[in-house]
Each structure stands twice: as structure tokens, then as C-alpha cells.
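Session log. Operator J.P. requested a structure for one protein chain; no other inputs attached. Running the standard single-chain path with C-alpha cell output.
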Amino acid sequence: MTALRTSRSGRTGQYLALLCYLVFLAFPFLWLISTAFKPPRELGSLHPTWIPEDPTLDNFRQAFDEQPLLRAAGNSLVAAIAAALIAVVIATPMAYVMARNRTKLSTAATGWVVVSQAFPFVLVIIPLFLILKNLHLINTLFGLITVYVVWSLPFALWMLVGYVRAVPRELEEAAAVDGAGRARTLVSVTAPLLAPGIVATALFAFITAWNEFFFALVLLKTPEKQTLPVVLTHFLGAEGVADLGPLAAAAFLATIPSLVIFAIIQKRITGGMLAGAVKS
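Structure written below.
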């Protein structure tokens, strides 16, 4: 009886901790939505409220009038989708080889992948800029996509190595005993089991590229090529004073693609882990 009460108390504590964490994560987003719909009078109020007393869409209209948000969003979308797809296509076979051939070299390579993520952006931006300049890729989306792929590839590789190692070798051996070749085994047995990991990795690469600001600021010079995070900074005045209403409206719109994509594929991430094990 005592053990049961202890178990219930522990579960209750876990739920409370999870609830506090969710509130902590949701607070900035909810406040952003509230700010986006507030008129200037409420934005300057000394007693702010959660729910706008007189909600308005003027902030959204002003945001679109002041800055080319659609064009910037299109640039960000192209860069993010291309970077995610290319990173996954490159990382998947590399991760399979590293996971299935455990040597000192592959272990060292995995360690280097993790360590490389600790490098700050400022450390690499100068040599990166010079390399792209020599390749005539400055102020091009292709150059920015290349940078995003290189920057997200190590972590994508590290993620996929873990997913590949979680796939039992016995499944591949059983397929080989049944007469399946190497290519058939990879396509029919291994690939379906890796699908959740591939989707999760692609989502990570997409969100990383969609939200990235520093590389886009340095590498893209003309307004026509700038991405959405860079354009959002244009709502800040010369003295750092923010045009709060339009900025909140534009920032809210900038979060929607990530939320929509995650909502679409979240079932694939959580429900497809063992899908390949039951395929004939």
C-alpha cells in the first residue's frame, strides 16, 4: 500500500513538473499572440492584459505594408526545405555505414561530429565568407543553402547513427536468409524502420535553417535575397526601439510554418517506429 502511494505521488510530481515545463514553453508564444492583436493604446499600457480588450488586425496589415514578408518567407522556405532534404540524403547512407561498421575510425568520426557542434558561428564566419566569395556564392540562396547543409549535417548524422543502431541486425540477417539482397534488405526492412528518424532529422534541419539569422545576415546583401529572420530586424528602429505591434504580428506568422509541418508529421515520428517490422 505504501509503495502504491509512493508510486502515485511520484507520478503526480512528474505530471506537475511536465505541466510547469509546458507553461514555461508556452508563455512566450501566448504573449506573442496576445501582443500581435493589441492596438497601440494597449501596447503602451502600464497594466498589460493577457487578452486584448480591443483586438485588431492592423498590426498584420502594417507588417505587410512595411516589409516584404511574403518574399522573405519564400526565400526562407526554399532555403530550409532544400537544406533539410540535402542534409538527410547525405546523412542517411553515411549514418548507416558508421553504425554498421564500428571501428575506431567511425567512433572518432562520431566524436568529432559532436565536438564540431560546439564551434561558435563567429569562429567560422570569416573563412566561410572567403570560401564562398571565391566560389562566387555570396548573396545567393544556393550559397546559403550550402552553409545550412554543412552546419546541420553533423548533428543530422549523429541523430541518424543512433536510429540505425537501434534497428536490430537480426532483421537484416533474417531478410538475407530469406534470399533478399543487400539493396532489397535496405529498402524493405531497414528504411521503413529508419523513417521516423529520417523525418525527425529533416524536421530538425528545417527548423534550424528556417530560424537561422547570423549566416543569412552576413551572406545575403540585397533585400530581394534576405530571409524572414533578417527582415524581422527591420522592425527595429535606428535607436533599437521596436515597432512592437507589427513585429509581434510578423514573428507570429513566422512561427506558423514550423508548427504546421510538425503537426503534419508528428504522427509519423511517434507512430512509425516499428512500421517496417511488419512489412512482408
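Operator note: The CA atoms of residues 125 and 134 lie 14 Å apart.
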